[in-house]
Write a structure and sequence with these properties.
- There is one protein chain.
- The chain is an alpha+beta fold and 135 residues long.
- The chain has helices at residues 41-54, 100-113, and strands at 14-16, 24-26, 29-35, 57-60, 69-74, 80-86, 89-94, 118-124.
- It has a domain at 36-123: TATA-Binding Protein (2-Layer Sandwich).
- The chain is 21% helix and 32% strand.
- Helix 1 (41-54) packs across helix 2 (100-113).
């Protein structure tokens, strides 16, 4: 992709609190960041960890999964989102209050820390939101 990608959020997931406890999200919007060159899952993980360590992030791998997953808060913009790595891509998962600024700043730092170009696309499975893309 050429030029600056848009991080406009077409639709937001809804948070619900089931009577059994916990929190669940209905729907998903995610920005998929794909490196232009072949980068291993391990190398992507190290790159994301270096971006998080350089700040201004507070983050944590909050649950044991077969893929890297962090809950991230940008301390400057106050945006909170999840970052995962899967299928050779870094994925930024939008939460109900995530703002575009925090996503854009993370992307800019990822580009600066890496040594390749990135393609960005947005995917949403939220059928009633504006800009629905169907998955």
């Amino acid at each position: 992709m050429t030029g600056d990608p848009s991080f406009a959020i077409p639709a937001r997931p809804r948070r619900r609190y089931p009577s059994s406890g916990g929190v669940e999200y209905e729907g998903q919007t995610m920005f998929r960041l794909e490196p232009a060159t072949d980068v291993s899952q391990t190398a992507l993980g190290r790159l994301v960890e270096s971006v998080l360590a350089d700040g201004p992030y507070r983050s944590g791998a909050f649950i044991e999964l077969p893929m890297p997953l962090w809950l991230v808060r940008d301390e400057d913009s106050a945006d909170v989102f999840r970052v995962s790595i899967r299928d050779g891509c870094v994925r930024l998962h939008v939460l109900p209050e995530t703002g575009s600024e925090g996503l854009r700043r993370f992307y800019d730092r990822l580009v600066a820390a890496g040594d390749c170009a990135w393609a960005v696309d947005c995917r949403s499975d939220i059928a009633d939101g504006p800009g629905y893309e169907g998955g």
